Q: What sequence folds into this?
DNA sequence: TAAAAATACTCCATAGGTATTTTAT
DNA sequence: ATAAAATACCTATGGAGTATTTTTA
């Protein structure tokens, strides 16, 4: 059986007339009769009752007509879908987000993706550290990482999309919160709330380095998520230095102040080389979105 | 595009090897390469990445593989289904049941149909009078009638399956209920509960005729359904004569007694000539069921 | 260099065309 | 008598085969 048989049968069933159906199919009537007959022979079932005056569907023909139509539309759909996938307009993409950017990026990106690539299913996974994302990219668990460089692996494609300044997070009643700006040196003696150490959080390493440059080694308390970090500060358990985009996360009792020093941290998109069409489209869209997006 | 393209592509995708796939398809390797290439050209999409060492699916190929497999199984299913319909093992049949037989036949027939023709969807419609069923048969609203003859239309096929005796339905406290048997003449003076008149209920006509033969014209109260009829008798609103199969319907306060007279009524199967295969199968099954079934 | 896909070509099976017959109204 | 499907026969497209080349690991 071939799709030709189904197309021909559907045409005859719809026209109830071999001659008109043949015309519609742009073939002559005899080969149409033959093909339909061939189909019936293969099925072992009579689909049509024909006299010279009337062509009618048998009950089996009625049923087969439904199924044949369904198959033909599914074939069309399959072709259209394959084209969409090839053009990167349909598919699934897993995206990792660095902790400090999760609260700004998660809503921004999911909105942008829904608007720009509606048939792409995006799986956004937040609060992932740079080395975690690197491993997941290489393992194929995520297709795109939005993270804080540097990335160790040489094969991955890295593209920096933002450069942010660090800002201080202070409890609202804190004496330093009275000033317009805060100097890193002012934080000597304070407890610093930070991300997990062991060299896994790029932001944490940068903060510790900034303190060392200002002449002190900070006492630190470690938390796993950005929201916990700001909550800890709000609770008066310490102060923190975070990328400015964290300011999108507002928690009562915590306030942000710019630093006197110019301490900067990058945000980069990372993906495997030769990305699939969907991933390429998503990378391009995310890149555009993050560059257009005004971020304080 | 033809099913051949789908079959070939699925084979290559499953083997990841043109040579082995060709072997499986019992064709040579070059035409297989050509057909797959042709498919890709028609879709405008690359489905496979091939080097001489490795054949792999592209994302679009992955998606198209799912769809192609689905289409191929649907084609198989469509063929199998058409054969079932042609053999009368699959389909939908609407069956009308006469009021007096509804309560016995509805459960019996639906059980028999589910056991004997599990893929046939039967629509059992009870409490239909003979002329109603006749009209519905001719209009194609039902395919089989289980009714009380006679049938007026000459073209319909009628086959009598049972001959039942009429029995009396009496309120439990009624004086006549004291006797083993009841004579029709004893009912003179009683109110008779019966089915709608105007010559539409065959059982009703038979009852009135029996009374006339016994020398009286009964006073009647009319109800639409058999369950209502027996309930009316139980409530002491009158007595009734019904086919013996109604005795399957037991309602507190009403009791059945055989008649002294031998008043009989037939039960027949009626369908249009040249029934479709399903209808023919259902008719045969129903006929067997009603003849096997012991009915008091 | 060896395994496998692509290319080049050849052939024949069969889809499709033309002419005619059959059939049912 | 006529419209329409079936049959008979022919043609030619293209699917499949054979031989060979190309490619890459």
A:
């Amino acid at each position: 059986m071939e799709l030709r048989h189904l197309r021909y049968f559907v045409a005859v069933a719809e026209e109830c007339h071999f001659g008109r159906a043949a015309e519609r199919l742009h073939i002559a009537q005899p080969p149409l009769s033959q093909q339909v007959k061939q189909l019936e022979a293969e099925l072992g079932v009579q689909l049509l009752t024909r006299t010279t005056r009337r062509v009618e569907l048998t009950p089996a023909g009625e049923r087969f007509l439904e199924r044949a139509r369904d198959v033909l539309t599914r074939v069309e759909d399959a072709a259209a879908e394959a084209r969409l996938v090839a053009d990167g307009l349909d598919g699934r993409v897993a995206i990792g987000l660095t902790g400090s950017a999760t609260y700004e990026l998660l809503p921004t990106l999911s909105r942008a993706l829904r608007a720009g690539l509606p048939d792409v299913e995006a799986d956004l996974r937040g609060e992932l550290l740079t080395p975690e994302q690197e491993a997941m990219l290489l393992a194929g668990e995520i297709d795109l990482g939005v993270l804080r460089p540097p990335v160790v692996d040489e094969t991955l494609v890295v593209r920096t999309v933002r450069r942010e300044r660090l800002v201080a997070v202070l409890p609202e009643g804190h004496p330093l919160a009275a000033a317009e700006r805060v100097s890193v040196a002012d934080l000597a003696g304070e407890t610093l709330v930070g991300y997990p150490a062991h060299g896994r959080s790029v932001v944490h390493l940068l903060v510790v380095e900034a303190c060392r440059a200002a002449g002190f080694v900070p006492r630190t308390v470690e938390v796993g998520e950005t929201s916990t970090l700001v909550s800890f500060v709000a609770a008066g358990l310490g102060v923190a230095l975070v990328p400015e985009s964290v300011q999108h996360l507002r928690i009562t009792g915590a306030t942000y102040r710019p630093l006197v020093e110019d301490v900067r941290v990058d945000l980069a998109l990372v993906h495997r080389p030769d990305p699939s069409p969907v991933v390429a489209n998503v990378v391009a869209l995310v890149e555009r979105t993050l560059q257009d997006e005004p971020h304080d």
